[in-house]
Design brief:
elongated; 91 residues
């Protein structure tokens, strides 16, 4: 594995039980493997979404600055979504 940086983490009792259960079931050889796998999945998910927190904040600000939406209310948004779903189903 080469160079490793050692970390100490604190888990809730529920998460600790999940980790212990995965090791006991033979899914992983150690708690460290469970955490490494979870971190790899977390990293993949972040890369899949492709936005940093700063980028998301900028997009949010851009949306707010653009003014109210053309539909104006959640009920109108839902009605438009239902209309589009019906149109897609009919096509």
């Amino acid at each position: 594995m080469g160079h490793v940086d050692k970390r100490s983490i604190t888990l809730s009792p529920e998460l600790a039980a999940e980790v212990d259960g995965a090791v006991a079931a033979g899914e992983y050889a150690s708690a460290s493997e469970v955490v490494r796998d979870a971190l790899r999945l977390w990293k993949e998910r972040r890369e899949l979404f492709g936005y940093t927190v700063e980028e998301l904040r900028a997009l949010w600000d851009e949306g707010v600055a653009s003014g109210p939406g053309r539909l104006g209310s959640m009920e109108k948004i839902k009605a438009e979504a239902r209309r589009r779903m019906k149109a897609d189903d009919a096509a």
